[in-house]
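User: C-alpha cells for this complex, please. No commentary.
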Amino acid sequence: MNSSARIVLGLVIIVAVVAGVFAFLQAPQTAHGPTESPAGNVSPITIGFIAPLTGDGAALGQNEKVAVELAVSEVNMAGGIGGRPLNVIYEDGQCTGKVASNAANKLINVDNVPVILGGLCSGETMSFAAAAEQAKRVVLSPCSSAPAITDAGDYIFRDYPSDLFQGAFGAKYVYEQLGKRKAAIVYVKSDYGVGLDKVFREEFTNLGGTIVADEGYDQAARDLRTQLTKVKASNPDIVYFVGYTEGSTVGLKQAADLNLGVSMFGADGWGDPKLWTDVGVAGEGAMYTTVSAPLSDDFKAKMKEKTGSEEVLTCSPGAYDGIKILAQVMSKVGTDPTAIKDELYKVEYIGGVSAARVAFDENGDPAEASFAVKVVKDGKAVIR
Amino acid sequence: MEIFAQLVANSVIAGATYTILTLGFNLIYGATRFTNMAYGVVAATGGYAFFFLTRTVGLPMIPSIIAGALFSGVVGVLTDRLIFSPLRKKNVRPSVHVIASLGAFVAIQALLSIFFGAEFWTLLPSGTVRVFDVAGASVTEVQWWIMGIAAAVSGLLFVVLRFTLFGKVVRALSDDEEVGKMLGINTDRTIGIVFFIGSMIAGLGGILVGFDTGIQPTMGLFILIEAAVPSIIGGIGNLAGGVIAAFLFGFVENFGIWFIASQWKAAIAFGLLTLFLIFKPEGIMGKK
Amino acid sequence: MNYILHLGTFFGIYAILGISLNLLVGGTGLIWIAHAAIFGLGAYVLALLMTKVALNFFLAAFLGMCIAGIVGCIAAWVFARLSGDYYMLASVAFNYIIVSVFINWESLTNGPLGISGISRPSLFGISFAGNESFFALTFLFLGLVYVSARLIMHSSFGRVIKAIREDEEAIRVFGYHTLLYKIMISGIAAAMAALAGALFASYIAFIDPSNFHVMESIFILGIVVVGGFASIRGSLLGALILVLLPEVLRFAGFPQDISAHMQQLVYGIVLILFMLYRPQGLIGEYKF
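Assistant:
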C-alpha cells in the first residue's frame, strides 16, 4: 500500500476517533431535558434551526436563515429573553428526510435545544416530528405545508397553513373569480405537489368543474414537453401548475414554446422571484396563490439590506414571526419545552409580517389563513 | 394530428440530444472498455464553463460554446491522466475503473456545487428564442440548433473515424487493445486523445442540454443515463447503432408517456434498458 | 449519550447493509448498485404492515425479509446472464424502477408524501421504544447478521460462491449449478438488507422515497469498497468510517452551506484513492 494513501487513511481514522470522543464528552450533559434557568442567569438560550441550506429549496432556506438572523438580532437588541441572549444553531436539512432527521437528533441530543424552528420542506419536518415528540421538544415549522403535519404530534406547530386550504382556495378562485370550467393539472411528484393536486382536483370537481388532464412529473425532471403536449391536447381553459422554482422555470418556458395559449395558475412554490426573471415573457400573465403576508416596509427594507434583493421569499416571514413568537413565549414561561408547548396553544401574536394575527388551533396549525392571488406583470409578481 | 406532429417533434429533439451525448460516451467506451460513470458530470462542467464565461466574464455566445466544450475536454483528460491512466498501467479489472469513475462523478459534482451553488440556472434569457411552426408542431430556434449540431457532430466523427489515421488507430483500439499494442500504437496517448474528443462532445451536449432546459450540478446523472441507454441499446461502442438507438429511445420515451401516465417516464427508460440488457445485450446492431 | 446511541444505531443499520452487500459483491465479484432499493423495500413492507394492519414489528420485519429475499432471487435470476458493466447498469436501472414504484404507486406507498407514524418494536410486553433498547436491538441483529455472514462465507456453500467469483466456467465444469448459487446468495443478501430497512423505518418513524435513491446505493457500495471486498469484518470498519465521516465534517466547522458538498467531495476522493492505491479495501482479502 502506497504511503500517501496510508497517510490519508490514518487521517480519516484519527479524525473519526477525535470526533467520537468529542461527541462523547459533549453527551453526558444532555442526559436530562433542558433545565429551568435560575434567576439572574445570563447564559444564552439556544434553539435549533433546520432548513435546506444546500440542494433543492436552498434559495428559500438561505433567505429564511437571513430572516431568522434578523429576528434574533432584534430580540437580542431589545434585551434578549429575560436578559438572556437568544442563540440559534443552524443545521442543513437538504430538504431530505434522512439528513434532517440526523440534524434534528444532533440538535435534540447534543445541543439539547428546547425548540427547533423548522424544517422548511414537509419531508424534513415529518422526518423528525416523531423524534421531537418523543423527546418532548417543540417544533415550529415556518413553511411546511403538507396536510399530514396537522396530526404529527402535540409538540409540532407551524405558522404556515396546510396545503388543504391553499388548494381549495385556488380551485375556488379559478372556478368562481376566473370563471374557468375545464382545468388541466400539472404537478411535481413531491409531498407538496401531490397534496395540492389532490385537494384542487376534489374541490374543483365539487364546484362543478372538470379536470381534463392530470399529469405528474418527477421533481428532478427538466423536460415537461410531453406532459404539456398531453395537456394541450386535452384543451383546457386553464392549467393549474404546481411546482418548485426549477421545474416551473422549464415548464413555463416549454409551455410557451408549445404555444399552449391558456393561462397558467400556480401555487406558493412560484414565490421565488428568480423564476420570473428567468422565464421572462413566458411568465407574463401567470397567476399564483400565495399566503397573504402583511410584509411591513420596515421588514422588507431590513431584509433587502441583508440579501440585496427586493423580494422576501415564501418561508421568511413565517420564520421571522416564529422567532418573535418563541421569544415572547420563552420570556413568559422560560425554556421548559412542555411549558413552551402549552403556552404556544394560548399565544396570540399581533402585528407580524406573516399574518395579521398568529394563533394556533388544537392541532398546532394556524387558526386562520388568508390567501391572495398574485399575477406576473413585466417579470414581477403583483397582488391581483 | 397536431398532437401527433408535436410528439414526433419532441421525440426527434430528444433523439438529437441523446445522439450527441451517446457519441462521446461510445467513443470513450470503445477505447477504454468500461462504463465511465463520470461522463455525465464532465458534460455538466461544459455547461457550467459556458455559464461562467457568458454571465461572469461576459464573453459572446460562440466563443463561450467553444471554450466550454474545450473545458470539458480538459476535465475529461484530467480524469484520465490522474485516475484511469494509472489504473490501466496497473492492469486492474474493469470494476476498479468503474468504482473510481463513480468517485470522480461524486467529487466533480460536489465541486460544481461548491463553486456555483446547488441551484438550477437557465442559460438563455427567455423571449430571445424564436419558435417555428412545423406541420402543427412548435420547434424552437435552440432545438433547430441541437438537431443541426447533432448532425454535424455525427457527420464529422464518422469522417474522422473512417478516413484519418487517428480514426484507424481508434478503431483498432476498439476492436482489440492488445492488437493495437502489438502494432506499436501508443495506446495510452491515443486513449488520452479519445478522452479529450469524447469529453469535448460531452461538454457540447452539456451546453445544449443547458440551452434547452438549464444547468444544475445533479444533471450529470441524467446525462450519463441519456448517454448510456442508447449506447447499450445500439450495441456499446457501435457509433451508428448508438445514433439509431438514441432516436428509438427518444420516440419510445415520448410516445410511451402518451399511453402511460407521465410520471413513469424514468421507469419507461429503464424498463427499455433492462429489456435490452436481458434479451438483446449485444444491441440492435451489435455483433453476437 | 443519546447522540452516541443515535450514531451507533445508524452504524448498526449501515453495517448490516455493508455486510449483506459484501456477501453479494464480494461473493459474485459483480458490482450491484441497487442495494438502497432493497433496503427501501424492507422499509416499505415494514412500514405498511405496521401502520396499515398493525402487525408486530418482528413479524412485519420477517415478512419484509421474505419479500425482499424473493425479489433478490428474481433479480439475480433475470440478471444472471449479464456480466460486468451490463450487470451494474441493470442494477442502476433496477434501483430507478423500484424508487419509481415507491413514488408512483400512491394508493399503496403514499407516494412522495412518505409513510409516517411507524412505531418502535415491542415483543411479549418488552418495548424497544427507548433509544437505548433500540440500539441494543440493532446490535443484536447486527451480531446475528455478522455471525451468519461469516458462517456462510466459511461454509462449503461460501467456498463455492468464492470459486464462482474466481472462475465461473471452471466451477460449472465440475458440475455445480452456478446459477442456483448466485440466486441463493442474492436472496440472502436481499433479506439482510430488508432487515436493515425495517430497523431504519422503525427507528426514524418516517420514510419517503428520497431515502432510497441511486446515490444511497453508491454510498452503501462505498462501505464495501472502503472496508474491503469479501471481508465481513471490513464492512464493519467501512460502515463505521462512512457513518462517522459526515459527523466529523459537521464538527470540523465547515461553513454550513458547503459542508454537505465537502462531505461528498471527500467521499468521492476516498473512493478514487482506494481504487488507485488499495483496491482490496482496508482489510480486504480480494483485489477487485
